[in-house]
């Protein structure tokens, strides 16, 4: 199964030079936020595959006009075929925007889902905008990851944690890394995951 991952920067390869043959084997799409709603609507229309997304810290426009044809999975556990996917958007609080949270808020919100996670048998893919703390995050207030995400990875051991927020062109940032039993992937621009 192939999953198209998107995050933080619209890909010219996808948008300006789109060729459906390059993505014919894609089963579904995951967006990790900070992308134009029109871009997500374009991708889902051209590929005609489900697109699941979480909002990024710069996606205030989604409140008035969300991406058409796409499914918001912020704080939702969904199932695609036999894959359990949980999403959480936004970033660490730094200026009070609509998709900014303090770690204690994130902890309180996610803990309310722990029974649901347990009853469903866990999480296979954890999708977020921000990374976990110390797992591909930055050092400034905006880009520090959430410690609560590490708790999710420790407790439920999803196969993948897909995130955005940290642009690969910021400096020495790895696209893929391991955190215990979880493969962590930065979805910046686009990436094709073979699940």
Automatic annotation (TrEMBL):
Molecular functions (GO terms): hydrolase activity
SUPFAM superfamilies: Metallo-dependent phosphatases (SSF56300)
Domain called Calcineurin-like phosphoesterase: residue spans: 14-167
Domain of life where this protein originates: Bacteria
InterPro entries: Calcineurin-like_PHP, Metallo-depent_PP-like, UPF0046_metallophosphoest
One family name in Pfam for this protein: Metallophos
UniProt-recorded name of the protein: Predicted phosphoesterase
């Amino acid at each position: 199964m192939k999953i198209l991952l998107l995050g933080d920067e619209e890909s010219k390869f996808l948008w300006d030079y789109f060729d459906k043959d390059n993505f014919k084997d894609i089963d579904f799409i995951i967006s990790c936020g900070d992308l134009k709603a029109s871009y997500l609507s374009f991708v889902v229309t051209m590929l005609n595959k489900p697109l699941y997304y979480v909002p990024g810290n710069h996606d205030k426009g989604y409140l008035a006009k969300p991406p058409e044809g796409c499914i918001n999975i912020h704080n939702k556990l969904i199932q695609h075929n036999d894959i359990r996917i949980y999403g959480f958007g936004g970033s660490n609080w730094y200026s009070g925007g609509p998709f900014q949270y303090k770690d204690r808020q994130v902890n309180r919100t996610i803990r309310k889902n722990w029974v649901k996670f347990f009853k469903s048998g866990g999480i296979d893919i954890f999708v977020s905008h921000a990374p976990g703390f110390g797992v591909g995050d930055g050092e400034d207030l905006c880009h520090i990851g959430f410690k609560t995400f590490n708790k999710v990875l420790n407790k439920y051991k999803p196969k993948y944690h897909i995130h955005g927020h940290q642009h690969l062109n910021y400096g020495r940032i790895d696209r893929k890394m391991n955190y215990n039993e979880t493969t962590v992937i930065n979805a910046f621009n686009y990436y094709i995951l073979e699940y």
